[in-house]
Sequence to fold (552 residues):
Amino acid sequence: MNPARFWQGRERYTVFDTRYGDGARAAALIAAWRDDPDRPARLHIVALAERQLPGFHRMPQRDPGVTLDLVGTPLDAALAQLAARIDFVQLQGLRGPNTGFARALARLAASDARLAFDWLEAEQVAALMAQGFVFEGGGARFASRKPRLPLPPVPPRRAVVIGAGLAGCAAAERLCARGWEVSLVERHARPALEASGNLAGIFMPLLSKDDNIPTRLTRAAYLYALRYWETIGGIGKAIEGAACGVLQLARDAAHAEAARAIAATGQYPRGFADWLEAPQAARLLGLPAPEGGWLFRQGGWARPGSVCDAMLAACGARLARVFGTGSVSLARVGDEWEVRGAGGAAIARAATVVLAGGAASVEIAQAARLPLAALRGQVTHLDASTLPRLPVVLCREAYLTPAAHGVACAGATYDLDADPGLRASSQQENVARLQALVSDPTAGAHAPLAGRVGFRCVAPDRLPLVGPLPDFDAAGDTERLRDVPRHAGLFGLLGYASRGLIWAPLCAELLAARLENEPLPLEAGLADVLDPARFVLRARRTGRASATSTAD
Fold:
């Protein structure tokens, strides 16, 4: 049974395949889609892949109308976490007694979805029939009469994005790639003048022995960013930077022992994360590495402003730049949001607005109750001739980049004050840390005060906020995320902290996919972790706990 037989007349078509294999079947389907004048506007393929890091992995394609997700998760777990409406199912290799997938497939199947298979046990056929699949002509069709919850309507494909840093530029590009018209509003005269204006940001994954939620989210973001950057020109080409690798030194013997335990699990291939003992690390670095360290071969550094430029260039004619506006406010006018400048005049209008301006977003009334903080970070710029020459980015409690244009970057501080100016005490802190990194008490000593101050947007749980913004005042006694009232058409891409380079592409893709009712690029549970409405529920729980404590 060929999926292409059933996609005519569809706006989008989603195929779920239980075996990606060598990719030949997916490649053939994509080729058939390209050659068919009656193809749907968007084709989505979700396939289970062996020899893959755990989780969902979105693989950007040459054609923006095609989405490929490879899932390194067993079938039942994948279906439980898949947020998609499936039009065609390819079952292959399901030998054995497993029948639990049938109910999950029925939950995800679109009306009249088709099912192909190479082999099914009699118990599996019976389980699928019990869920509404009718077997006919060597395949099956989903014919359940149970009502399907309708997908929300796709809004008019016109949006205003507020903030032209990494978050906002990525949002604009991901929406424009789907045919949206985007007005990008920025208070400054140019993009990337706030936290995204640093000379260098580093990109690397996060590791943990228990593969916890921050680790899984960061891994997904990191790997997607590496692939996404290639579609907009590539690191070291359109994007200023280098995928030179990152060496993360162990802090002490206990930290090194914990790292060895992670390495011993074998869960990370060496190309992703390679533990180097002290002699190996020292040979690579040309400097002492007393406790060894993790080498992230695909990691490196990039100038965030150049990433913003590449993303904006990819938007093409669908992007309108509305820069130099100063502070703005939002007002609801009919079914749309009106963005107003400081004097109250309208400067942009759309049914969909995305707040992507970092911590300054809480100056907008509808976002004022989001628990976002601005953490000061001072980066020190150093003459490269005063430092050891690094083959990789070096980090531990702080980081030091290889030189670019004769300048190396060291930092960054984490300060709770709002001082925008460079100060000697912060520079001393950065220099002391880099001296410890390179085991040289003279490195960077007596350097002139030079660098940059930026303010990171940080949430209490250090995770981004991605999705529709909650209406705190209307929340009442809400207990579940899906029941939290939202500001219609108002979304957030906020709280990227120190990982804006890698968070920006995946979070923008997640939001764009949600707006378009496409399969999400993350497990449903991980997408929920990023929902801005989580703070409504936490505020209620905290309030109940405080009330109980007072009563006691």
In short: The mean pLDDT is 95. The two ends are 66 Å apart (CA to CA). Residues 156 and 351 are 7 Å apart (CA to CA).
